[in-house]
Structures are given as structure tokens and as C-alpha cells.
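Entry 14. Structure prediction run on the chain below.
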Amino acid sequence: MTIGEQKRAFVIVGHGAPAKDTPPEKVRRLRALEGERRRTNAHAMLAEEVALDDEVRRWPRTDTNDPYRAGIERLAERVRNYAKSVRVEIAYNEFCAPSLPECVAELVRDGCEEIVLVATMMTPGGVHSEVEIPEIASELREAYPNTRIVYAWPFDLDTIARVLVDQASSFVSK
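Output returned:
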């Protein structure tokens, strides 16, 4: 993990999804509380939202009840293969643990001096990638002034276009 004298980490930030067996009424209520908070421009979650958010995020996960999380974990393993000297962790924007603040707090406790946040959301226009994650990153920079926290976004659209063309080309008959 050490590069020179500096410890670095990449955090893959996925959207997150409720586990398939999370009671739907809990997810509906959580979304309703979040929607009300956004409509009123309140920043802090009320106690009921905090409790539901924690319960939904920490719902027991398996590859079957949360295939999204399983996919992000497989992606992280591949990233680890390419970034051998950098610690690679996963965080989620919503519905799944750990949250981005939880993940960064652990990395700071472990002595990471530079943390690069990389969202799986690649295109412009999304509230998560353009608003929420930058706000959280700003709060984390304030909370950990001795740690360099970088949000590696937006993605270069030409790079993303090349990846998409390469992927599509691999399915084209030759």
C-alpha cells in the first residue's frame, strides 16, 4: 500500500441498492423521508430517517439478494489486480454499507494520507455524481484536513466512449 512515504487508497463509490429481501415498506418509507428532506432543503436527516437508512444499509447481503453489490465487489477485485500498491475499498452512495463517510473514516484511521474517490457513475447529469458525492467529499475534506481527498470525476467522455466501443466491438461478428 505504501508508495514512497504516502499511503494511498482508491474508493470505488457505487450507487447501492436495497437487498431484494429488504421489506419494501422500509425502503418506501426511507425514500419518502429522503424526498421530504430534499423538498424542504433540510440537510440533516431526522432520527427516523437515520434509523431506517442504517437498517437498510446493514441488511444482510448475499450474492443472491444483492447482485449489484456482488458486481461491485467483482469490479473491486479487478481494480486491485491493476492497482497492486494502492488499497482499494468500496463505499455506497445509498442503501448499502459502508457509506462513503464510514469508508473514509476507516481509511484515515488506518493511516491513509491520500484517498481518491472514483464513482461508478460515468456520465454527467446525475445528482449522485454531480451533487451528492462532491458535497460529501467537501465535508470529508473538512473533517480530515491532513488527508488529501480527491474526487476523480467527471470522467473523460472520450475515454468512456472508447471503452463502450471496445465492449460493443467484442460482441460484433467478425
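DSSP finds six helices and five strands in the chain.
Filed with the rest of this week's runs.
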